[in-house]
Amino acid sequence: MLGIVSSLQQNLLKKSGDIEGIGSSFAAQLEGGDIGSQNLFKRKVSSQMTINKIFKKDLREEACQDIALIFYLNAIPFNAANSEAYKKMFESVARHGPGFDPPSYHEIRVKYLKYHVEMTNLSLDDHKTYWKKYGCTIMTDEWTDGRRRTILNFLVNSPLGTIFLKSIDASKICKTIDKIFKMLDDVVEEVGEENVVHIVTDNAANYKAAGEMLMKKRTKLYWTPCAAHCIDLMLEDFEKKIPLHSETIAGGRRITSYIYGRTSLIALLHKFTKGSDLIRPGLTHEKPAMGFIYEEMDRAKEKIQDAFRGDESSYILLWEIIDQRWDKQLHWPLHAAGYYLNPILHYAPNFKVDWEVKRGFIDCMEKIVGDFEIIGKIDDQL
C-alpha cells in the first residue's frame, strides 16, 4: 500500500517537473561535496513536504468537485455552504478518517430527525427558563405566500435570543378584531402570561384594537405596534405632505422605471455595479432596539434641525409629522422605561431624566411589579 502511495506521489510531481529538479540538485551538491548529511536530511524532509502538499491539493480538488456536484444535482442553495453546520460536518468526517459510511435515507429521515427534535426541545427548555426569570416579548411577522394566503409567524425574544414559536394561516383571522384578539390571547396563554412582558404586532387599526383588548384582559403586559413599520409610515407621510419630498421621490421612481424598462441599461448598470443591486448597504446588529428607540427619535429630530441650520420654518413640518406618528403609535411607557433602564444611556455623563421619562418608568413598574415599596427599592438601586 505504501509503495502505491509513494508511486502516486512521484507521478504527481513528475507532472509538475519537480522530481527531476530535486534529483539533479541533490546529485550536483553531493559530487561537489557542498552538502553534509544534516543538510541532506533537511532537503529530503523539505521535498517530502512539497510532495505531500501537492498530493493533498489534488485530493481536495477532487473532493470539492464531488461536494459541489451534490449541490447542483439536488438544487441545494449555495448559501448552505456559509452555514456553520456545513463546516462542522466536514470536520466530523475528517476526524473519522477513511471509510466513513454516510447516514442513509432512513437514518436522516427517522433516527437523526428524532435526535435533533429532542435537542431542539432541550434548547427550548433553556429559553423557557429565561422567559420565567427575565420575561419575554412575543413578536409577529406577517407575509403572503404564493397561494395568496396570509401567514403569521410568531417569535419569542428574551435575553437568550429569539426563537420561532409557530406559524398560523391567518387569512380568515386578520380582518376581524375579535379573531385577532383570540389568536393573540391563545399565544400568550401558550407562552405563559406570567412570562410575557410585551407583544408586538402590525400597527393596522384592527391589530391596535385587538392589542388594547388584550391589555385589558392581561393587565401585566404591553402591546405596541412594530417600530420599524411606524418609521416607514413617517417616511411615507414626508412624501405625501411635503411637495419637495414628493417631487424628488417621483423623479427617482421615473429614473428607476426608465432603467429597468430597458435591457441595455440594465446590462450597463450590472457592468458598473459588478452584478450588484444599486443600493447602499447599512450596518445592522442582531439585537433588540427597545432601549434605544426613545433616545434615537430625539436624536433624529435634532439632526433634522441641524440640517436646516436651526431654521424652524424649514424643519417644523417634519417634526410635526414625526410627533404625530410618535404620539399615536410609539409613545409608550415601555419605550420610556427602556430608555431609562438602558445602561449605555443611563450612566452616560449627559444622561438626563425628565418627568415624562420617569413617569413612563413608574407606569411600567406599576403594571409589572405592582408593589410601590418594591418599586421604590428598584429605583433607589439605579
From TrEMBL:
Which domain of life does the protein's organism represent? Answer: Eukaryota
| SUPFAM superfamilies to which the protein is assigned, alphabetical | Ribonuclease H-like (SSF53098)
InterPro entries named among the record's database cross-references: DUF659 (IPR007021), RNaseH-like_sf (IPR012337)
Boundaries of each DUF659 domain copy? Answer: 103-254
Spell out the Pfam families in the cross-references.
DUF659
Database matches in PANTHER family = OS09G0499600 PROTEIN (PTHR32166:SF122), OSJNBA0013A04.12 PROTEIN (PTHR32166)
Protein name per Swiss-Prot or TrEMBL: DUF659 domain-containing protein
Species per Swiss-Prot/TrEMBL record? Cajanus cajan (Pigeon pea)
Source organism phylogeny: Eukaryota, Viridiplantae, Streptophyta, Embryophyta, Tracheophyta
